[in-house]
Design goal:
Aminopeptidase; about 170 residues; about 25% helix; 4 helices; alpha+beta; 7-stranded mixed sheet; single chain; two-stranded antiparallel sheet
Amino acid sequence: MIRIELLSAENFKQDSLDYYPRKQDVKKVYRKHNGEYILEDCVYTEDWDMEKRRTVAKNISGDDYVTYLAIEKDEVVGFIGLKKGLIESYMILDMMQVSAACRGQGIGRKLFNAGKEEARKAVAEALYISACSSEETIAFYKAMGAELTDCTIKEIEEDEPYDLQMVCYV
């Protein structure tokens, strides 16, 4: 059984993501053409090496984040990392992952809902998401109620120029 828990020293260590299966096979992505987003072919696999896993583990367990974990048999199978503090009226959803083997089971929805609740507690107006432009990722966020925004946070948009900037009102 998978449970959602706030990250703590008891359920997360710096090596907790060492064997996390972060892999996504992307076939189509959204790109902006003449002011509209169009799906186009772009085949690649996104996978994390050990250095990336350790960097993510350090970030999401740091003082700048509120992180919820999806845990199955004491293994992390997903997480959502939210930046503490608000930018304008937004809480930043910085990272969200569900392992490929656990997708389609409602784990992403549970993590996202935990993120929305955290945003409400922080009195944020919305979650701000700089989302990977893959077809599946955008479909997930839209299913969660997120929508594209023209009111972007420029630094985030510039840091990830191929991401789609989205908000989900809480």
